[in-house]
Amino acid sequence: MRWGKALAAALLVAASGCTVRPKVSDTGYTGTWARGNDRVRSTISIVRHGDGYRFRWSKSSYDGKFAVRCGWDGACVETLNGVSVASHRFATALDRGTGTLKVSVVESRLVPEKLDLRYVDELTVEDGGKVLRSTTIERDGVVLDAGGGRPTRTFDKVADAVAVAAPAGSRR
Fold first, then answer.
1. Rounded to whole angstroms, how far apart are CA atoms 169 and 11?
2. Ramachandran bin of 152, using left for φ above 0, alpha for ψ from -120 to 50, beta for the remaining angles
3. Distance CA 158, CA 25 (A)
4. Tens digits of residue pLDDT in 123-135
5. What are phi and psi of 2, to 5 degrees?
6. What is the pLDDT of residues 55-108, one digit of tens each?
7. Is 66 exposed, middle or buried (0-12, 13-18, 19+ CB in 10 A)?
8. What's the CA gap between 11 and 48, in Å, rounded?
9. Is 5 in a helix, a strand, or coil?
10. What is the pLDDT of residue 163?
């Protein structure tokens, strides 16, 4: 009987066109952030872990031919048409002086030739906790000039929580 009432209520909500939106508030770095267009979508999930943070990135094309899948341990695999073309390794560190979260990445391209790239992005939370700005501040050991030439991407917050279970001991 209870299941029937719950199903009826869910169908009523769906039929009325109402959608339940995830909670989006200022939780600092923690939560789920996304950006994309009609071809590709990129998502970042961040959770507290001890004195620091865990960071997980995913990216995929809408046709399913391209994807980057990462675990909470920072290890990622990038595929194109089902073939592994690169790996990525993420590590986070909270800059105690500025309060910003820094994400170090080692990207190992396998195709068209083997190539390792290293870069550091600085994350800042803006617009009342609803925008995450990722600015590349270092590339292959070279600090990039702060005069506006640094690559920057912005992600909109889509949820205070993360979609997939966070590692044990994490706080959302």
1. 36
2. beta
3. 9
4. 999 999 999 999 9
5. -60, -40
6. 999 999 999 999 999 999 999 999 999 999 999 999 999 998 988 999 999 999
7. middle
8. 36
9. helix
10. 72
Tokens for 99, please give them: 């309060």
Tokens 């690559």 — which residue?
Answer: 151
Mean pLDDT of 99-126: 95
Verify cis geometry, omega within 30 degrees of 0, for the bond prior to 112. Answer: yes
Rounded to an integer, what distance in angstroms lies between the CA atom of residue 14 and that of residue 49? 36
CA angle, residues 34, 137, 62, in degrees to nearest 5: 25
CA 93/CA 100 separation, integer angstroms: 9
The residue behind tokens 């009325």 is 16
117: tokens are 């790239």
Q: How far apart are CA 80 and CA 40, in angstroms?
A: 13
Interatomic CA distance for residues 127 and 120, integer angstroms = 23
Closest residue by Cα to residue 133 from 99, 107, 101:
101
Asked if 103 and 119 touch (Cβ cutoff 8 Å), the reply is no
